[in-house]
Structure formats: structure tokens, C-alpha cells
Amino acid sequence: QDIPLRQKSIVLIGFMGVGKTTIGKEIAKKLFRDFIDADQEIEATFGLPASEIFQTYGEHVFRQKEKEIIQGLCNQKLKIISLGGGAFLQEDIRKMCLDKCIVFYLDLSWESWQDRISLLIDSRPVLQGKSLDEIKALFEERKSIYQDHHSTVPTDQLMIDEAASYIVDSLK
Ligand code: S3P
């Protein structure tokens, strides 16, 4: 059964560390809705941070749980949901989200993003052991997946509050 547009949950996608969680919380405040971080839900089911889930069980176990969790979240109405940066690489997740939710891609330039690497590296298993060139290649490769078919938020030029307002205003 179709969810009416005004009740659809909002899903935020984009590369690691672009601000999906921070901006998502701000949108939730503005719209008086609940915020859910898909990564936190995954971590809660294992009782471990993402980096340890990768280490202990392997990435495929993380990805499988990620799909299950996001499927459950997509079926809820009126939520603000942030996804991990790798979620949209799974076609099933892309389809579910595009079908049931309103998806926004938080776009940040490589120049702005690379200033944040040192803050992210310890907690992001996907970045570990990679050279800067390899990380840049991943960044570019994923950009082409994220930007297909979704509303893009120009995060470079916006403060957190402005990015949240940009999304809220575009719903009107
Ligand atoms: C991942 C991004 C992380 C987390 C996991 C894998 C990725 O989420 O899901 O470490 O593959 O890009 P954030 O985008 O919130 O950092």
C-alpha cells in the first residue's frame, strides 16, 4: 500500500562524514519527527561499533544486517533516517528507499571532505589501510551512485541549520 507523500520518511544519503546524522537530527527537530540513524541500529543489534562488526564478522555480515534494518525503517512513516555511506551501493536498499521514502543526497566536494579525514579514519573501517588516492577514487565512484535520481543538497555552501532548512523547504 502506498504511503501518502506527506507521511513518507525522509532518507539522507552521502559519503561518510558529510553530516547525515547531524543534519538529520536538525531536520527532525524542525519537523517534530523522530530521527533514526541506521548505523546506530546496526551497532545496537551487535552491541559493537561498526569497525568491530567488520573486524569480527566481516563486511558481508554488516551489509546483510544493514539491508534488514533499512527495510524495517523504510516501512515506517514520518521518520528522518540517515543511512551509512555504503548502504546505497546495495541495489535492494536503493529500490526500497526510492520506492517508500523521499531521498536526499548530501553532496560535499572532495576539497571540503578531505579536511575531515583525520576525524573519521579511526571509526570508519572502509577508510582504513587506504591511501589518499584510493580514498579519492572511492569518493568519486560512490558519488556517481549517490547522485543518480535524487535531490541533491549542496552541503559545501550550507551550514548545518541551512542544509536542514533547504530540505524542509523543498518538501513544501
Ligand atoms: C560505511 C559508512 C559508515 C558505516 C560503515 C560503512 C561505508 O557510515 O555504515 O562504517 O561503507 O561508507 P557513515 O556514512 O555514517 O560514516
UniProtKB/TrEMBL annotation:
Keywords: Amino-acid biosynthesis, Aromatic amino acid biosynthesis, ATP-binding, Cytoplasm, Kinase, Magnesium, Metal-binding, Nucleotide-binding, Transferase. InterPro entries: P-loop_NTPase, Shikimate/glucono_kinase, Shikimate_kinase/TSH1, Shikimate_kinase_CS. It catalyses: shikimate + ATP = 3-phosphoshikimate + ADP + H(+). This is Shikimate kinase. One of its GO terms (molecular function) is kinase activity. Mg(2+) binds at residue 21. Catalyzes the specific phosphorylation of the 3-hydroxyl group of shikimic acid using ATP as a cosubstrate. It is found in: Cytoplasm. Substrate binds at residues 39, 63, 85, 142. Pfam families: SKI. Its main location: cytoplasm. ATP binds at residues 17-22, 124. It comes from Virgibacillus kapii. Its cofactor is Mg(2+). Binds 1 Mg(2+) ion per subunit. Its EC number is 2.7.1.71. Pathway: Metabolic intermediate biosynthesis; chorismate biosynthesis; chorismate from D-erythrose 4-phosphate and phosphoenolpyruvate: step 5/7. Belongs to the shikimate kinase family.
